[in-house]
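Same chain as my last thread, 383 residues:
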Amino acid sequence: MNSQRKQIIDLFAGVGGLSLGAVRAGFHLALAVELDKHAMAAHELNFPGFAHWRGDISNLTGEQILSRAGLAKGDLHGLVGGPPCQGFSAIGQRNVADPRNHLFTKFFQLVAECEPRFFVAENVPGILDEQYDDVRRTAFGCVKGKYTILEPLNLIASDFGAATNRERVFFIGYRSDVAGTLSARDFESNRVDTITTVADSLFGLPRIRSDWLTEQQSWRRIKPLSNSPIWTKMSDDIPDGVGNAEAIRRYKEEKIISGCFGTRHTSEVSARYARLKPGKRDGISKAVRLKLNGFCPTLRAGTGSDKGSYQAVRPIHPTSPRVITPREAARLQGFPDWFQFSPTKWHSFRQIGNSVSPILAEHIFTIIRNALSTERQEETVWA
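reply #2:
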């Protein structure tokens, strides 16, 4: 192991929004842990140069995780992850006793056991509601006295360059034996001067046909993109060890990308969507039609097989009478065009809807990485 690398472990890794942001910010992904087999397969496809472990985090110990990552206690810089949010979400049942809520506390138990220099935990804003005070208090109690915990950060992806107004809360802390200088204000700075709209994000994508239903048919050619900052992120910023080689080749050499699935609507539904004005919600499907000069609302993941496998309502395309494709959703969320998702439409949307925008994640990890790199006591504490 290279002792100079700043190592992180990504728990509840999903398809890899946090992982991509962290690696782009200069961290080394020592291990990604995920239970869902479809998300794990996609993560392995996109991060072939890194270690993976498909496992139930509720049954794992810090010692097991460090061992699987090839790290000794003291080697880990950051433990990061987004514990399941369904029990806290405003669109869910908001059940304090939801069995998934304990995984938020489990994350902090693993922080205490792994003793990383910092941690980042992501969730929905609903977790800050009063009814979850005990959940947060129990979780933070695991690291009380060992870590300085910043005030919760409510960050919106569109403020940092993504075309979605998806809002998430981040809990960030660093070890109390480190003379750190991080504050909440550090993460709330550096908002972009020029926003990325829906039109910006969807530029260059193909006109979708409803009969593009197979994974093979979903690979389609896109128009050349400009050299603007957003398209640099969408195309050229590929860290070592990241990306599927064939997907990158097809993108770079042929300008062909995946995920351009069609969706078959009845003539009645298509006509209804065609009449719907941008920014308005369809009365039957409850889908919102996107505005070209606006942001995409938060993309939802739908439910897992244990909850009926219901697909989340997808936004309606701003100019075509149909719902958006997985690749369009990925663009709106800030994923690069070479990034891969499940070969099925249903799992692709679950993976995108469950993810953190990698653009926002990179912002967060860059702030932390810069703090680690400039810390005066780096050789004895942060190194």
